[in-house]
Amino acid sequence: xxxxxxxxxxxxxxxxxxxxxxxxxxxxxxxxxxxxxxxxxxxxxxxxxxxxxxxxxxxxxxxxxxxxxxxxxxxxxxxxxxxxxxxxxxxxxxxxxxxxxxxxxxxxxxxxxxxxxxxxxxxxxxxxxxxxxxxxxxxxxxxxxxxxxxxxxxxxxxxxxxxxxxxxxxxxxxxxxxxxxxxxxxxxxxxxxxxxxxxxxxxxxxxxxxxxxxxxxxxxxxxxxxxxxxxxxxxxxxxx
Length: 240
Hints:
This protein has strands at 55-61, 64-75, 80-92, 95-109, 112-122, 125-134, 137-141, 147-149, 169-171, 178-180, 182-193, 196-206, 211-217, 222-229, 232-238. 0% of the residues lie in helices and 53% in strands. Strand 13 (211-217) and strand 14 (222-229) form a beta hairpin. It is built from no helices and 15 strands.
């Protein structure tokens, strides 16, 4: 999951000085005028949200808790709703030096993403992203031009499934458009989760905003994360 940052903050965000399109790892061409860019290629790898998608992590920097990342699963008739909530706060003495929040809701049907709504408050700016499945693909709307992603494209919030790491690109749930993902699977490791040892598979990944490692257990559940940027390391510790 992308993390925001202030220039002097330990948290992480996309660079402001480099246009987002130039950072994409996939070959994405924009159409002329106001038309949608052409459909971006993505692996048509279905994901199936289940109760295992429920995740709550404490976010740590140098051992101090600076916030939380929560994923919640809500089944309903015909659809499945998955919400993501991220709250980060950095204080110095009695002053707030950095705050960040992100809220999103995804609706899934038959293992496919059918809608996305998100609101992010970053650097004092409120960003909105919406998306909906169409016969041509998944249409994403933000403050930039609308973008049409390939059917089956997952979002940057879908770390609850390792299927997200099998895609060349994902929909950016915080800023809109798409971003590239480069992933390498490493050896299984024994890690500590909730005071017990757990065997999990580690993946190294890179996006235009973030690099790090993420771990999934044998059942495909997200159990740990370590992300770095500018020599700062952010740790995701699963709450139990």
